[in-house]
Amino acid sequence: MAKYIVVGGVAGGATAAARLRRLDEAAEIILVERGGDISFANCGLPYYVGGVIPRQEDLLVMTPAKFRGLFNVDVRVQSEVVKVDTAARQVTIRHGEEEYPESYDALLLSPGAQPLRPPIPGIDHERIVTLRNVPDAAVLKKLVGDYPQGRAVVVGGGFIGVEAAENLQAQGLSVTLVEAAPHILAPFDTDMSALAEAELRQNGVKLLLEQGVQEFLHHEDGTIGVKIPQEVLTADFVVLAIGVRPDTAFLQDSGIELGERGHILVDEYMQTSAPAVFAVGDAVMTFDGLTGKKAALPLAGPANRQGRLAADNIAGKKRKYAGVVGSSVLKVFSLTAAATGKNERALQQAGLVYGKDYRYTITYPNDHASYYPQAEPFALKVLFSLQDGKVLGAQAIGKKGVDKRIDVLAAVLRLGGTVYDLEDLELAYAPPFSSAKDPVNMAGYYGDNILQGLTNPLLPGELAAEQERGALIIDVRPPEMFAAGHVEGAINIPAAKMREQLDKLDKKRPLVVICKIGMNGYFMERMLKQSGFEVRNMMGGFTYLQGTLPK
C-alpha cells in the first residue's frame, strides 16, 4: 500500500489529496495543514470583510471533518512540516510542542506563500495587517467594526489591494490606496488600468500613485502615520497588500532545489529535483506557456490544475503541465477588469517593438446587441504578432460582458490561435447576450485589416508628430460631439458629409481622422485612401484619446 503525504491544503494540496484518493482507494494519504482550515475561499476574503459574504463559515469550502469523511484522508490540522529528509523519504511534523517523523512513498508540497512585510520602520504595529487567510479576514473585519467611518490606508495596488479598498469603502470608511508604481494592476497596460483608477476615484477612494511607503509612525493618539514622499497620511489601521513570497524556509536544507526568491523549482511533471517529491501552487516556479521561460503565478486556477496533474503523476499517469498564460479577473466597483497573456510591458521587456513585432487593437463594443435594452460598452485590447497574427494577450474592462470575452481569448491564446481564428469563431448569439458579430470577432477583423495593410491606425502618442508634419485633423463626429470637446486645431466634417467635401481637401496634405470610437474613422480612412489621400485613423477615436469609456 502506497503512502502519500501532502503538505498544505487549500487549492493545490486539497485538490491533489482528493485526486489521489480517487485514483488509489487503497493508499494511505496524510494531509498536513499548519492552520485550522484545509480548504477555504481565500479569493473571497475581501468580500467577507466588505459584508458581501455575510458569514465567516461561508468561506470554508471543506471542513477537515468533511474532507476526512468524504475522501478517507488523515487530515492533521494545526500541524506543520518543519523538516524534509528526501534521502530518507521522511518528514518531521510539529504539532504543539511535539515533533515526530513520518515516512512517505511520495511527497506533495503545497506550502503556499506568505504576504510580504518588508523591513519598513514601524511596520510591527498590531493594526498594520495583511489579508491572506480566514484569521486575517477576521482581524480586519474586527478593525472595520472598531473604527466605523474610520480611516484606512491600503498599501499596494494589486488585486488584493484594490478589492480591499473597494470593500473597506463599502463599509463607510475613508480609504486611501498607496501604490509605489506609476499605475495599479500590473497585468494591465497603462491605457486600461487608468480606467480602473478612474473608477476607484469616482467611488471615493483616494489614489496615490508613485508613492512608496518610507515609514510607519506610531502616534500618541493611537493613530498610525503612513509616511510617503509627499505627505504623512493618518490611518486608524493599514492593510498591506504588496505581494507574496514562497513559504519555503523549511526546505532550505532538504536537497530540494529552490530559485533565487525561494520558489520550488519543478519540471513539466510538477516534480522537484528530489525523487518522489512534487510541488504545486503559489510556492512553485513553473514556466510560461507562451514563451517557455520560467514563471511563477500565485493564483487559485493554476494551483488547482497543478494539484490535479501532480496527483496523476504520483499515481503513474505521466501528464505534462502546459504552463501558465496569466488569466485573471477582478471587480472594481461597477466595473469588471480581466486580462490574459502578455501586456505591452511584458512584450517590450522581451525585446519586442510595437509596429515591428506586434500591434494591438482597441475597440469599444457593447456587451450585447445595442438595440436590446441596457447594452453597456466596454474597452477591449487585443495584442498580436505582426509575423503570423498569433494572439499574444488581451485586456478588457467595462460593466458587462468582459469576463466571457477574455475567457474566449484565453482559450484561443492557450491553443496558439491567431487573429484570423478570432474572425472564424462561431460564438453563441442572441440579442440579450451578444451581437451577431461578437466583440471577439470584431477584434479579429480589426487585426486582420491591420495585417492586410487596409488600415494603419494612429496611437494617441503619435498624434503630436502627425501635427508637427502638418497633418490636417478631421473630426468626423456629429457637430454637437465636436462642440463638446475636440483635438485642438481639428476641423469638423461629419462622416455622412465627407464625400461632399473631398474636392475641398488637399491631397498633398496628410490627414488624420478621428471619430467617437474608431469605427466611422476607419470607414472614412478606407474611402479617403481610395480617393488618393494619405490618411490615418485614430485608434479608438476620441474616446481612446480621452482615456475613458464611451458615454
From TrEMBL:
Gene3D superfamilies: FAD/NAD(P)-binding domain, Rhodanese-like domain. It comes from the Bacteria. Pfam families: Pyr_redox_2 (PF07992), Pyr_redox_dim (PF02852), Rhodanese (PF00581). GO terms for molecular function: oxidoreductase activity. Keywords: FAD, Flavoprotein, Oxidoreductase, Plasmid, Redox-active center. Its cofactor is FAD. SUPFAM superfamilies: FAD/NAD(P)-binding domain, FAD/NAD-linked reductases, dimerisation (C-terminal) domain, Rhodanese/Cell cycle control phosphatase. Residues 467-550 form the Rhodanese domain. Belongs to the class-III pyridine nucleotide-disulfide oxidoreductase family. PANTHER family: NAD(P)H SULFUR OXIDOREDUCTASE (COA-DEPENDENT), PYRIDINE NUCLEOTIDE-DISULFIDE OXIDOREDUCTASE DOMAIN-CONTAINING. This is Putative oxidoreductase.
